[in-house]
Structures are given as C-alpha cells and as structure tokens.
Design brief:
5-stranded antiparallel beta sheet, two-stranded antiparallel ribbon, 20% strand
Length: 201
C-alpha cells in the first residue's frame, strides 16, 4: 500500500518573511505564475501568490512568494510558515533556484530585439521565467512520466503519485503536497504504480 506520511500545518504556525529577492529585470511574476499553472501540479498560484510545500530536513513546510514590485523593478517577498531559522535558510536557497531569481536574460532580450521576426514573439512573453523542480529526482521523475503520455494524462498521473506517496501540509483548508521522496517510491511494487499508466520499460 502507498506510504503517505501526513504532517499537518499547525493553525498557529508563524508566517515568517525569510527573504526579499530582487531579480534582474524584467521579471514578470504574474505571467510566470500563469504559464506555470498550465503544467505543474505541485506549484500553486492563488490570488497572485506562489505557494509550494518544500521537502526540508524536518518534513514538509509551506512557502509563499508574493510580488511587491513590477516587471521592470521586480521585488519578490518569500515567506515560510515556520519559525525554524535553519528551515528558513534551506527554503531560501531552494526558492532562489526554483524561481530562477539569478537568471539574467539581458543578452537574450538584446539579441531578440535586433531580430524583427523574433521580437514580436518574445515581447509577448517578456519577463517570463522558468519555475524549476525542487530536486533532481523530481525533475527526472516528471520527465519520465511526461515523455511517455499526453500532458493531460501525465498531470493526472503526477497528481495521483504525489497524493499517494508524497507528504502534505494543510493551510486554510487546502492541502499542499511535496514530491515523493525516492525511498517512498522505491518501496512500491510495479502493480502499485500502475495508476501512473506508464510502461515498465
């Protein structure tokens, strides 16, 4: 049977500001969340905020990121629903990488602007950044699932996987799941993983 540890978020959990990111412009946070929402089952966009349950050493902890700036003067505030400073340090590093905070696309935009055919396409997506997987294991697992079946079917399979083998925290009546740890999936039999609907090869 699937192993699904449950770590519920305490109702009195502290929402702590852990970092104010100032990425290189342009950084279109609303557009990034919009595009992210088409494919991710773990990264949640709600009322202009980014939500993600992170796998940390003491278990899953919920993070939230909001924009207080603009596309051309971007400022992102990262919050963690915990008062554990060591967890904050780990979450800060994860969020910096996952939200591509240090990706400077200045040269790319300069190149695109010089191309009359390319720029109209790029301009409509100006400031879009990639939201990355939390871990290499997550990235590889999602790649395997998504390359075998349609994206819609893959999303259903990914949702089944995280709901049955991942951990979650609960906040405001909503569950926020983490991607399963390798050990949790390793204990599953091929028959137990059949709902993923991918081949065994």
């Amino acid at each position: 049977m699937p192993i699904r540890p449950h770590e519920a978020l305490k109702q009195d959990a502290v929402c702590m500001l852990i970092e104010t990111f100032k990425p290189a412009a342009p950084y279109a946070f609303p557009l990034t969340l919009q595009i992210m929402g088409y494919s991710s089952v773990l990264d949640i966009a709600n009322e202009g905020a980014y939500w993600r349950a992170l796998n940390l050493s003491d278990g899953p902890i919920l993070a939230q990121v909001v924009s207080t700036g603009t596309t051309d003067a971007p400022v992102l505030e990262a919050h963690l629903f915990s008062d554990d400073q060591s967890a904050a340090d780990a979450a800060r590093a994860k969020l910096r990488r996952m939200l591509s905070i240090d990706a400077d696309k200045t040269l790319f935009y300069q190149f695109a602007q010089a191309d009359s055919a390319l720029w109209p396409l790029v301009e409509s997506l100006r400031g879009l950044h990639n939201v990355l997987a939390e871990s290499l294991f997550e990235a590889l697992s999602l790649t395997i699932i998504e390359q075998q079946i349609s994206l819609l079917a893959a999303q259903k399979g990914e949702r089944w996987l995280v709901e049955n083998y991942g951990q979650f925290v609960t906040h405001d009546g909503h569950r926020f799941y983490t991607f399963p740890q390798p050990a949790a999936i390793a204990q599953a039999t091929p028959d137990e993983l059949k709902p993923l609907k991918i081949t065994n090869r």
